[in-house]
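In response to the reviewer comment on reproducibility (Comment 2.3), we provide here a single inverse folding case reported in full, input and output, so that an independent group could reproduce the run without further information from us. The structure tokens appear first.
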């Protein structure tokens, strides 16, 4: 009964439903009402406005209106007191937090915003990047992993790049060697002219963008829908050092890739051989070099054919024998078992 009344009569004694008002008023006027009269309004029993007549359980007698009023006023007083206590607690908490805020020392670098900020969602990332672009006055350093750059990716940041070029900002970009084969990148660099200098490596770190060596952006998840905005001087200095060391190892985009010195083995196949020698699976090798798994396996097949390997185990041995598991060699002659002598130029 109680549950039924709560569902159909969700109110208190301060706002009776119309049916409850009629039955309770009748009970007050007459002194009591038959129990069946209260069946449609169980709220009167739940709110203790009606209760069984001790002399005859078939009848219900009302609680006096004076007692109901006293009960309502007491409840109202309790609610007001509780609210005042909550307000007092909130005011005290605000004063405490305000005191802590006055104790916070400003960053020594004078940089605006927190040292590390999480940007959740592409819209927030783009807005932060646009803001950093507008504030940039000297230099932008970027690392762009992956393979051939899609035109959509290049177009997405083109407006920022053009704005930077217009202000005389210098840009240096690092890509993987695979990116050399994308016409979109070549078109982008031609459009940017002397404002951008690009170099490539077999492998690069994950995406990195540095503005004026004061603010950096790096991915915060695998699908790049979240990013970290970094302004901590020590972190920025570390990332700049990483970039500069990679830059010194990289090959200018205008220069050809070095010859492996082994006939029939390309620079990319040499890189694949070195990663296979380290024990990496095909998918990992492909990801690190910025190529598809299918392309990677095609290179591995050509590598096996060139080195005369009939299995992956044998390929590992041939890679070691040919010296492809380490740094590139100077001019010498490499003898590959089962093959004619390969001349290293």
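Designed residues, in position order:
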């Amino acid at each position: 009964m109680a549950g039924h009344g709560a569902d159909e009569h969700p109110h208190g004694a301060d706002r009776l439903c119309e049916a409850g008002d009629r039955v309770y008023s009748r009970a007050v006027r007459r002194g009591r009402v038959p129990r069946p009269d209260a069946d449609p309004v169980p709220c009167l029993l739940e709110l203790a406005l009606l209760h069984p007549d001790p002399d005859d359980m078939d009848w219900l007698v009302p609680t006096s209106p004076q007692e109901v009023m006293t009960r309502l006023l007491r409840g109202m007083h309790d609610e007001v007191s509780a609210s005042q206590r909550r307000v007092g607690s909130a005011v005290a908490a605000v004063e405490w937090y305000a005191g802590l805020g006055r104790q916070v020392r400003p960053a020594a670098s004078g940089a605006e915003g927190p040292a590390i900020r999480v940007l959740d969602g592409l819209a927030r990332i783009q807005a932060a990047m646009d803001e950093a672009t507008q504030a940039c006055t000297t230099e932008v350093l970027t690392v762009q992993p992956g393979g051939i750059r899609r035109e959509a990716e290049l177009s997405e940041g083109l407006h920022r790049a053009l704005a930077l070029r217009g202000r005389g900002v210098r840009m240096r970009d690092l890509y993987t060697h695979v990116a050399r084969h994308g016409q979109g990148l070549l078109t982008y660099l031609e459009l940017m002219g002397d404002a951008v200098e690009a170099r490539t490596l077999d492998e690069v770190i994950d995406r990195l963008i540095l503005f004026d060596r004061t603010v950096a952006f790096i991915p915060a998840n695998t699908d790049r829908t979240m990013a970290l905005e970094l302004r901590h001087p020590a972190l920025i200095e570390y990332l700049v050092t990483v970039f500069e060391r990679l830059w010194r190892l990289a090959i200018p985009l205008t220069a050809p890739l070095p010859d492996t010195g082994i006939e029939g083995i390309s620079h990319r196949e040499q890189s694949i051989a070195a990663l296979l020698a380290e024990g990496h699976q095909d998918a990992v090798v492909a990801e690190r070099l910025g190529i598809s798994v299918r392309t990677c396996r095609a290179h591995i097949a050509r590598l096996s054919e060139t080195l005369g390997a009939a299995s992956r185990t044998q390929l590992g041995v041939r890679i070691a024998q040919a010296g492809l598991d380490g740094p590139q060699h100077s001019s010498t002659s490499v003898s590959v078992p089962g093959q004619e002598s390969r001349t290293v130029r």
